């Protein structure tokens, strides 16, 4: 008994080391096997679901990793002489451009009146002139005019948005939203004559079936969306910029887009409703956004 | 002694529970405090350096997490009646907009001729009308005209770019680049009358000093850059879209921008040089980028 008692500290020490080792191994396995999906799940809950579509893609491929200056392919060069304007005309054109775009607002009240499809096509064609990483042009614009599909989109968006509000987001997000009038009823998804869903192509498929990374696809497609928004406004149409949380995979399947495409934005498009209103917000003055050196 | 011995199992059990608790807490702290920086380091080598600027910011703040439909603050609503055009005029305007933008190209040969600063200001003012997540307007446009600062920027960009080419990037990246004429000599950074460096504000600072997450700041600023590119082209100016790898922190410090700002793009701006050439590349036809449903 005395022997057992004197051995107790040794036994305790050995047991502790064994337990510590087991616990550490367990934790290590847990952290090294899934660090990205874990952190992704915490940081971007809805992206995680989208990743199920292409588990072969490494996070390196899936992230926007490298940007190559736009449009410099290994092609013969040709002279380029863009239109030049005298200084006064430049000034006037730049002033008019600002005045035009400064009238643009995000509008949730969209008239169901029909809009010529060729106008939408022209604006998308213009959006497709955006620069892109290594000239990959990694965008697909899905234009939905069919009422039934629009309604299915609405149901998907509203359902997921309600879940987001109620469950997924932290206090901070909900608190930020409280300041906003946003709610998860999106009538405009039925009413707008067109819904434009903009997909970014995370990678391309080469003729041999291999995947080709699209560097900086999200930035490229966002730039393209900038041109799209300018073009819609220039044509007298309105929209509201939205990125429906968590809906990417469902909407991708509904619209039968391939697995390399991820939803970036959803824009309801049409004329402003006759009684359209917008929040009375202001934009920052120029001096708050520009710094001269 | 017998009492002590009979208590040994209890003692061991208690000790084990305490050790397990301590170890678990330790691991938990470790995994919750830094899992993202680990995965970020693996997935995006150069972003990691940038994160050194603001280690207090969690990755949740730093990622583009949530987007709120643009411009819907908790403000009184006012009527909004944007200009409407008859269908023929809409069609013509949309066609002209496409024709204008389709003439834009990324140009590396920029004339050193001076350009009126007010033109640049107008174009930036227009870019600042972009929608942004929760109307945060998370952009800063730094316009560099001073030759010495331009040259410092060139040195930073060229040095980092050479390192990227030679060391950091995998075989795939280098192979992709071989197809491109890009190299790390960037004369245009000295020659262009202006360099516009566009920073995204990852978060804002509230009056009480607390940080306010800027949801979807990267997408918002990229949209704004789309408007900027359209505005520059509309004024008869050229640029080439670039995102200098790894240079963000150095350029931020050089330009004395605060820690919440991250470099997104660097645009050299001016007239096209008289002998400017561009690669003879084509854009995808409309049918390749649009799907109608």
From TrEMBL, chains A, B:
- The entry's keywords: Flavoprotein, FMN, Membrane, Oxidoreductase, Transmembrane, Transmembrane helix
Q: What is the top EC class of this enzyme, as a single word?
A: oxidoreductase
Cross-referenced Gene3D superfamilies, in alphabetical order? NADH Oxidase
Q: Which CDD domains match?
A: iodotyrosine_dehalogenase
Give an example GO cellular component term for this record. plasma membrane
Compositional bias segments (type: Acidic residues) = 62-73
The Gene Ontology terms for molecular function here are:
iodotyrosine deiodinase activity
Q: Which Pfam families match?
A: Nitroreductase
Query: Where does the sequence pass through the membrane?
Result: 6-26
Report biased composition (Basic and acidic residues) as residue ranges: 33-61
> Can you state which reaction this protein catalyses?
bromide + L-tyrosine + NADP(+) = 3-bromo-L-tyrosine + NADPH; 3-iodo-L-tyrosine + iodide + NADP(+) = 3,5-diiodo-L-tyrosine + NADPH + H(+); iodide + L-tyrosine + NADP(+) = 3-iodo-L-tyrosine + NADPH; L-tyrosine + chloride + NADP(+) = 3-chloro-L-tyrosine + NADPH
The domain of life is Eukaryota
Q: Which residues form the Nitroreductase domain?
A: 102-271
Q: Which InterPro entries match?
A: Nitroreductase, Nitroreductase-like, Nitroreductase/BluB
Give the region (Disordered) as residue ranges: 31-83
Per its Swiss-Prot or TrEMBL entry, what cofactor is needed? FMN
Q: Which GO terms describe its biological process?
A: tyrosine metabolic process
Q: What is its EC number?
A: 1.21.1.1
Indicate the family of this protein.
Answer: Belongs to the nitroreductase family.
Q: What is this protein called?
A: iodotyrosine deiodinase
What are the top taxonomic ranks of the organism? Eukaryota, Metazoa, Chordata, Craniata, Vertebrata
